[in-house]
Amino acid sequence: MSNQEMKLLRKQFKILNSFLGGIFHQDIESPESTWEEFIDEAIKDDMLILIQEIERFLETELSYQEKEEFIEENCFIYFPAINITPLKWLKQVQDELKRAVDLG
Q1: How far apart are the C-alpha atoms of 81 and 100, rounded to whole Å?
Q2: Are 73 and 6 in contact (CB under 8 A)?
Q3: What is the dihedral of CA 37, 77, 54, 10, to 10 degrees?
Q4: Confidence class of residue 30 from pLDDT cuts 50, 70 and 90?
Q5: Which of 52 and 34 is assigned the larger pLDDT?
Q6: Which one, 23, 37, 74, 75, has the greatest CB density within 10 A?
Q7: In whole angstroms, what is the distance from residue 16 CA to residue 3 CA?
Q8: Mapping DSSP to helix (H, G, I), strand (E, B) and coil, where does residue 47 land?
């Protein structure tokens, strides 16, 4: 994916981009502890908006590879270390958000 395409996706999915880069940045202890902290502090309405944005992202016509690249480029998680693909991880995040707001 070109830099221009990535910039367009970041604009199109501004909330998801902010979530990935703002929560899962290079200074985190672990994805799990960061995730727990986010759930504890997040506002329900914000989580609902994020759930919708993730859904919109997952439903795009982007290829599997393009979706994975977007996720990897916008957060600092080394996915092989946690034994999951970026796309499966994002789906798990969405499921956890749904449970946190009693939608799942």
Answers
A1: 25
A2: yes
A3: 120
A4: low
A5: 52
A6: 75
A7: 18
A8: helix
Q: Considering the entire predicted model, what is its pTM? A: 0.83
H or E stretch including 40?
A: helix 31-41
**Residue 28 is encoded by which pair of tokens?**
């985190």
List, for residues 59-97, the tens digit of each pLDDT value.
999 999 999 999 999 887 777 777 889 999 999 889 988
Contact yes or no for 41/94 (Cβ under 8 A):
no
Query: Residue 102: which region, alpha, beta or left (left: phi > 0; alpha: psi -120 to 50)?
Result: left
Token code pair at residue 30: 């672990």
**d(C-alpha 10, C-alpha 48), whole Å:** 19
Residue with token string 């502090």: 41
* Token pair 């993730």: residue: 54
